[in-house]
Amino acid sequence: MGEGDAIWAPSILPHSTLNTLSHHPELHFGGKMESKVSEGGLNVTLTIRLLMHGKEVGSIIGKKGETVKKMREESGARINISEGNCPERIVTITGPTDAIFKAFAMIAYKFEEDIINSMSNSPATSKPPVTLRLVVPASQCGSLIGKGGSKIKEIRESTGAQVQVAGDMLPNSTERAVTISGTPEAIIQCVKQICVVMLESPPKGATIPYRPKPASTPVIFAGGQAYTIQGQYAIPHPDLTKLHQLAMQQTPFPPLGQTNPAFPGLDASPPASTHELTIPNDLIGCIIGRQGTKINEIRQMSGAQIKIANATEGSSERQITITGTPANISLAQYLINARLTSEVTGMGAL
To answer: CA-based Rg of the chain, rounded to a whole angstrom?
Structure first.
């Protein structure tokens, strides 16, 4: 099964068999981490997808891949990590239910170990919980939440873990993030119960899996040159350099000795002009960024004012108005186009 074939596998099992999953007396994780769920006839193959930040992925992979190799060998689960220089990566765990629980236990304990290690260098006294983010087809989230939130409440109460289902689907997918936090033990019990729900309510229709987007390349201006950061190296970027130099020449601060005391800098700045762009609705998010981070970055780097009109009913496009000097505008346009290009090329993988 390839990355992205997120299928919560199985044939639907009889309810009594499923219950053995969450209430099996012989399920114990810990020192030896053994599990006898398979004896209850529940050896179903499942695929679970986790969303992780780069740092978390690094912790799971370990030095020269040793940690993930050990997890694969000891759990018997297949653990795949999505490629790419993305700030987020997808970790896919596939295998029989008991192998999946072992893999989850190992990941949860590894994250707890990371928290303990980071605390030894910090003054914090209370230990933060371990947090994992599952990626679940939206069509299964209703069953997970239950009527009036009854199922999710039951899972929270019986496991002691915090569980939250995101209200919105992840970008360009039909999946939602389900965040679980608590002690490793609470997380393992919680994942077991979520698996039961998934087995009882398979996804409806096709699932479009979430694929994290590559990080946009940071740009640094130094000594009148523009550089993009690739890996550990700064690569000169001639197009951006030209725009940067233009922007520098048209600085609103006047040369010394030419100040107009009433309106400092007024006579030295070229007249501001306005430029309008229309952007398809489904791409506007990549320009705005999470909580407006990207659009603020573009405003700061270009020095232009950028306004995004509200969506109008029946229209599939949004109007963007850029105001500033010609150089500010061209730099803002360049940065907006760069965001769109990275978004569209990222989509090419679908």
So the answer is: 26
- How far is 191 from 200, CA to CA, in rounded Å? 14
Q: How far apart are CA 56 and CA 315, in angstroms?
A: 41
Q: Burial code of 167-206, b = ≥16 C-beta within 10 A, e = fewer?
A: eebbbbbbbbbbebbbbbbbbbbbbbbbbbbbbebbbeee
Q: Is 238 exposed, middle or buried (0-12, 13-18, 19+ CB in 10 A)?
A: exposed
Q: Which of 105, 91, 114, 135 is nearest to 3 (CA)?
A: 91
Q: What is the 3-state secondary structure (H, E, C) of 316-339?
A: CEEEEEEEECHHHHHHHHHHHHHH
pLDDT tens readout for residues 221-268: 565 556 555 555 555 556 656 665 665 555 454 444 444 444 444 444
Amino acid letter, 261: P
Of 92, 165, 89, 180, which is closest to residue 130 (Cα–Cα)? 180
Report which DSSP code applies to 32: S
pLDDT in tens, 61-76: 999 999 999 999 999 9
pLDDT at 266: 43
pTM above 0.90, yes or no: no
- The terminus-to-terminus CA distance of the chain in angstroms comes to 16
3-class secondary-structure state, position 251: coil
Q: β-strands 225-230, 78-81: how paired?
A: unpaired
Contact of 288 with 280, CB cutoff 8 Å: no
The CA-atom distances, in angstroms, between 52 and each of 72, 135, 161, 182 are 18, 10, 19, 16
* Burial of residue 118, with CB atoms counted within 10 A of its CB: 0-12 exposed, 13-18 middle, 19 or more buried: exposed
CA distance 332 to 318: 17
Tell me the CA distances in angstroms from 255 to 222, 246, 260, 262, one per residue in order.
Answer: 21, 16, 11, 16
Sheet strands side by side (includes 233-236): 219-222, 225-230, 233-236
CA pair distance 215, 233, nearest whole angstrom: 16
State the residue for tokens 């990549």.
286
Using CA atoms, how far apart are residues 326 and 254, in angstroms rounded to an integer? Answer: 17
